[in-house]
Amino acid sequence: MKILVINSGSSSLKYQLFDMESGKVLAKGGCERIGAGGSVTHKVPGRDNYTVEVDLPSHDKALEMVFSLLTDKEHGVISNVSEIDAVGHRVAHGGEKYKKSSLVDIEMINYLETIIPINPLHGPPAIKGMRACLRMIPTTPQVAVFDTSFYSDIEDYRYIYALPYEYYENDKIRRYGFHGTSHRYVSIKTAEALGVPVENLKMITCHLGNGSSITAIDGGRAIDTSMGFTPQEGIPMGTRSGNIDPTVIPYVMKKHGLTPDQMEDVLNRQSGLLGISGLSNDFRNLLAASQDGNGRATLALKMLANGIKKYIGSYMAELNGLDVLVFTAGIGENQYEIRRMTCENLDALGIVIDEEKNKNFERGVPFDITGKGSKVKVMIVPTDEEYMIALDTQRIVK
Ligand code: AMP
Q1: Which atom of ligand 1 is nearest to the CA of 207?
Q2: Which residue, 35, 44, 187, 191, is most buried by CB atoms nearer than 10 A?
Q3: Closest CA to 5 of 391, 397, 396, 340
Q4: Which CB contacts under 8 angstroms, 24+ apart, belong to 13-16?
């Protein structure tokens, strides 16, 4: 079975074609600058990458380009689009209706359109990607995999904000959680690596990338997560502030005469590690600067590690214990320094890492960095959201 996974952003469209029998990626790539020029990079394992500048006025055109590259005589890996058995779409938000991955149909698209007000950045491009596929390959089954659906079991006292209840009832303002596909994948892989059924494990998974979130998972079900109504809530991220006293927002808006859109830009794109350091949102740059004695880069790293620590402590309380602490995504998988800083002085909670294993970890596989005397296993587990989407798509289509 061949499954095409699509992740459609406002000006980009990423794709991966999987062969499900081997679990291998046959081809992957991305269209960039849709609506403002355009380029496509297409990668086939074992061959040179192919990049082409091409006018991409719309997501339809981008998808047309993807199909043409996948079936191209020189660069392609299939001879006809009919060889694609199903399409899996990454969809950030399923609202309160879509609590699990589901077949795409008009009813779903209509519902997703009604929740654009609470998902203004990611909703419209995901819908465009689904509509383009429905138009171009109408007989191929399509599945939407929602980042929010892993959190559909979270209890109301954990997802309701302490605001007037009408804001929840009328405006659907509540915590939804994001990155669910990654946390779910990593929880399954961790259990597999430990040889223990996921149902028997209490886990905290730390997805630390440019966007970061932390999830408490009890027996394979998420019980709480750090992101909320939007991906803004939680720990400091590359350019997002994470948690702040909400009253800071009207105060800054009044003081500096900012509009709501300008304030949102500050919170989303000018804050986090970039805002604190004034230097970069990229962990690598901050670590290098910190090692060169840059105080604000050091401050940014300390704030990140402390933010993660606070969630670990509170989620251990919510879980009433912990079996495994997991690090994943760009920073979590690759940066031993953040794992060291986070786990430093957590021995009172039974968390100790092996400094050597943490530093000389093996990349690309689940790797145990548990230290001597630790009551909690500590693991690095690579995430693969696209493969999780392909697996869900295969299960539903079958
Ligand atoms: P992500 O959003 O998961 O792609 O993660 C982006 C963040 O991870 C950036 O802050 C990078 O500094 C960091 N990162 C990604 N890949 C690597 C790598 N191979 N080595 C070190 N840091 C990395």
Answers
A1: 3
A2: 187
A3: 391
A4: 13/59, 13/62, 13/63, 13/66, 13/125, 13/129, 15/66, 16/386, 16/390
Distance 216 CA to ligand 1 centre (A): 23
SS3 assignment, position 106: helix
Other CB atoms within a 10 A radius of the CB of residue 102 amount to 20
Query: 11 is written with which tokens?
Result: 């000006």
164-215 residue pLDDT tens? 999 999 999 999 999 999 999 999 999 999 999 999 999 999 999 999 999 9
Say how many residues make up the chain.
398
Separation of alpha carbons 63 and 82, rounded Å: 15
pLDDT digits (tens, 9 = 90+) for 50-90: 999 999 999 999 999 999 999 999 999 999 999 999 999 99
The reply to whether ligand 1 has any atom less than 6 angstroms from the CB of 395 is no
Q: Is the pTM of this model over 0.90?
A: yes
**Active-site residue, 147 included:** yes
